[in-house]
């Protein structure tokens, strides 16, 4: 009797595994391909903005058009990441497939005209919308749809950053507010790995950041702790936490202010565009527009630049935070993780200059 029960349990587990392989692998391959298209388009949009600087003056028109289009044709797709999270907690009407083309086109358009935004929010929505479509196609139960949505999110996040393990953890823990969903572990990890492989198969690469300081630690005598450096790291950690707190609070405040000042949503990015273009004129630089990972001008503040010991800029992180808050809360599309990478790396670089610490190490600490 015990043997029969054990054997039956194993058969059920094999069937469950086979089911998820059959569903997750093609879904993740589709997500990885779509993310590859997105990243390629994002690179081309960024290159065009650098090549044709006048494109930023199209920001008000682009912002108005994308918010109007979401209101007119997007329907529930306007819910974005919040809709996906709601469907994970309480599966209902699902995530509309139209979310994928809407978020892809509008994010690329945001970067084309210089909006300060990221990309992970877009990848999450691409993954969530395709996962929901696969769930409907295979007629999954609400519980299985929840797992597949998490796998889709893991696929999107893992592919866009080239970090499948982080993508799986993000989907399992962050989107369920700190409560790990272990039954979704294997589908999420499988989806993230397949999507990442697919993205690479399309020839898409990812930026790598080198920390030269770590290459010289303990080469001759083994790893050792530097008490003074550790104290500086703790100090920097407090600063990073405060910066993240203020970023979140100011984002909520900006969102409320936009809604109070302009009840008609399509006008909000028009106001944001005026603010951003005004800041560009006042500061005399465009380095806080766009993604902020690289720039053809080596003197610009970029994430890559913050890892160089000879590039210490004390206020770039604050300006990038302001540009990002103004951009995203007005209705422009994109994520906020990459701008937060910029803010953290920039603040880390600045703190290294103040505290007399390794610049690349503190840029990396702020980055994560």
Helices and strands in order, then pairings?
Layout: H1 2-51, H2 59-74, H3 80-89, H4 99-112, H5 120-137, H6 142-161, H7 164-173, H8 185-201, H9 212-215, H10 227-261, H11 268-283, H12 303-306, H13 316-328, H14 337-355, H15 359-367
Helix pairs in contact: 1-4, 1-5, 1-6, 1-8, 2-4, 2-11, 3-6, 4-5, 5-6, 6-7, 6-8, 7-8, 10-13, 10-14, 13-14, 14-15
Main attributes?
368 residues; mainly alpha; Clc chloride channel; 2 domains; 15 helices
Give an overview in words.
With 368 residues, the protein is mostly helical. It folds into 2 domains: 11-202, Clc chloride channel, CATH 1.10.3080; 231-367, no CATH class. It has helices at 2-51, 59-74, 80-89, 99-112, 120-137, 142-161, 164-173, 185-201, 212-215, 227-261, 268-283, 303-306, 316-328, 337-355, 359-367. α6 (142-161) runs parallel beside α8 (185-201), α10 (227-261) crosses α14 and α13 (316-328) runs antiparallel to α14. The protein is globular and about 60 Å long. The mean pLDDT is 89.
CATH-defined topology of the largest domain: Clc chloride channel
Helix tally equals: 15
Alpha-beta content class:
mainly alpha
* Overall pLDDT metric: 89
Distance between the first and last residues' Cα: 52 Å
Specify the CATH homologous superfamily of the largest domain: Clc chloride channel
**What global shape is seen?**
globular
Characterize the biggest β-sheet. none
The proportion of strand residues reads under 5%
Number of strands: 0
Radius of gyration of CA atoms, rounded to a whole number: 22 Å
* SSE string: HHHHHHHHHHHHHHH
Sequence stretches where pLDDT stays below 50 over 5 or more residues: none
Helix % is: 55-70%
**How many domains?**
2
CATH arch. level architecture of the largest domain: Orthogonal Bundle
CATH class category name of the largest domain: Mainly Alpha
